[in-house]
Amino acid sequence: MAIRSFGWVQNPSDFNKLKKTVEIFDCNSKQYNLLKEKLVEENLYHFKNIQESLQKKLNNNDEEFTYSELVGRNLNVNGKTPKSRKDSVPNALIQISLESQSSKTRGKKFTDEWSSDGFLRWAVSLNFVKHNRKTDTFKITEKGTSFINTETEEEMNQVLKEVLLSYPPATRVLNILDNHSNVTKFFIGNRLGFKDEPGFTSYSEDLMIEWIKDSEDKKEENKIRSDVEGTADKYARMICGWLKKVGFVNQNSSQYTSSIKESRKVTGFLQYSITGKGKHALKQSQGNSSNSKSTKFLLWEFLAVKGSGKDYIRTRRATLLKFLENSTSVKSLMNHLKHQGFDESIDVIKNDIEGINNIGIRIELNDTSVRLLDKINDFEIPNIDMNLTSKEKSNLKLKEFFISETAIPNKFITLFDLAYDGSANRDFEIITSELFRDVYKLNTKHLGGTRKPDILIWNKEYGIIADTKAYSKGYKKNISEEDKMVRYIDENIKRNKNDNPNEWWKIFDKNISSANYFYLWISSEFVGKFEEQLQGTVTRTNTNGASLNVYQLLMGAHLVQIEELSVNSIPAYMNNMEIKFV
């Protein structure tokens, strides 16, 4: 059985390319016949077996294709993984159907496998194409046939409007914009998806505006605006782009005054608002006296994206939704879930319900009753092995503790996953910075970039230079990282512009005593001989510091919330050892 990711789309935005993708599954379409008569022969000659197999299927007017036939792989002419993307050659149907973004400048007439996967995922998520998990094959739906049979842009947009109002994340975005005008992707992203999961990271709107106002030049400003966003922020941006194209959303630019130079104006992030058409369409889709509710299209895959035990979590949430189609009793729901093998606390289930609302399926909950407000399609729950590994069980139990026993916002609980994900370093940095600001109630500044620490943390009494490290197996001694920390500490002591022209140390409160600065490494856990790095750093700088694992980071936040830990006592833990708050 092939389990793939559907429901959430990061990259595609071109409706015409989406239409070409869907046309691949209809033997009467223009794109299908272009593939049959020309494109397969002209573009797949590097792989004769693939070329002959696909040509045979097209000649037979087959309309169902496997994932590998559609998306292919990243290969060079020798069938190996290329050292560079420029050495890639096409080997699948979607690749040769869509021109790359550099087709006009570099003459590249095909796209890559990553973009191909994105367009296929988009087509499935909007119910234009359906996936058979057992065979890992795809074919067109009735909605898809309606879409590709449109002849004008107006007709195409009409189909897209109806489909987007059935796509839960799009209606969630419209609901957010119906209540808040002129907000950025970060504001929307913070309210979109399952916030305790690494697949829905979002950065604080205030933090990002502050960061771009602090940019030193246009190059840094452009990089922050185009490259820095959480996963949910990216989803929000993409969905707003689709909704804008069909007239449901407006966007406008923003401008700020630079924090560094008042005469300089900084181009800010796009801001989104719902249109009159969008309000009317949203209201109609939710049903009233003259309109029935739109049926929301949902797949089991929509219900989690990544993270520990995601298939188990998807099935728990799917089981919850199926039950709510016939019952409104909280007690009965909990009994049913337990009978189905889900023994989580009521707080975890309430958290699931909040997340389901955040993906666009509306559920109303009070102490004794829970009511599904939307009509949803009869989606399938796959019959898969839901046995969790000991590590997955431990991770879910830890999350359950923080959900049930603390008041830490859900977005920070995802730090458990981010700390162990080596590809999520930026997420780990930024969300850790937000945790210190929002929960510890300390001043923070996320810096990142070259020749700057990851995070500065301070109040009027002390300052901390912090470096975050996301490692799947824990962080061990690293002399080059020790060297960088030593350099930051020395720069802060000397405060000489000649040592570092960006003068990052000026961010700290100017009244902090020179004896009250510390260093801190934050990671998933610390392994091997990491204590040697702590001792080496204090020996070289005569500055005390510590390390802090992600569990202790969150426990410290909890203790601050319940007033069992004072942030003013944190310097007492800077003893060149790993911090243990509990």
Q: Could you please describe the fold and organization of this structure?
A:
The chain has 582 residues and is an alpha/beta fold. It folds into four domains: 15-149, Foki Restriction Endonuclease, Chain A, domain 1 (FokI Restriction Endonuclease, Chain A, domain 1); 168-285, Alpha-Beta Complex (FokI Restriction Endonuclease, Chain A, domain 1); 304-376, Arc Repressor Mutant, subunit A (Orthogonal Bundle); 408-578, 3-Layer(aba) Sandwich (Restriction Endonuclease). The protein has 25 helices and 17 strands. The strands form six sheets. A six-stranded mixed sheet has the order 12-13-14-15-16-17, sandwiched between helices. A three-stranded antiparallel sheet has the order 1-3-2. A two-stranded antiparallel sheet has the order 4-7. A hairpin with a 4-residue loop joins strand 2 and strand 3 (137-140). Helix 8 (142-148) packs antiparallel against helix 9 and helix 23 (479-494) packs parallel to helix 24. It is globular. The protein starts with 14 loop residues before the first helix and ends with a strand.
The CATH C-level name of the largest domain is: Alpha Beta
The proportion of strand residues reads 5-15%
Largest sheet: 6 strands, mixed
Overall pLDDT confidence: 94
The total strand number stands at 17
Measured distance between first and last alpha carbons: 44 Å
CATH architecture of the largest domain: 3-Layer(aba) Sandwich
**What is the overall silhouette?**
globular
Query: Are there runs of 5+ residues with pLDDT below 50, and where?
Result: none
Q: What level of helicity do the residues show?
A: 40-55%
Radius of gyration: 26 Å
Oligomer: single chain
Strand order of the largest sheet: 12-13-14-15-16-17
- Quote the CATH topology of the largest domain: Restriction Endonuclease
The total domain count is 4
Count of DSSP-assigned helices: 25
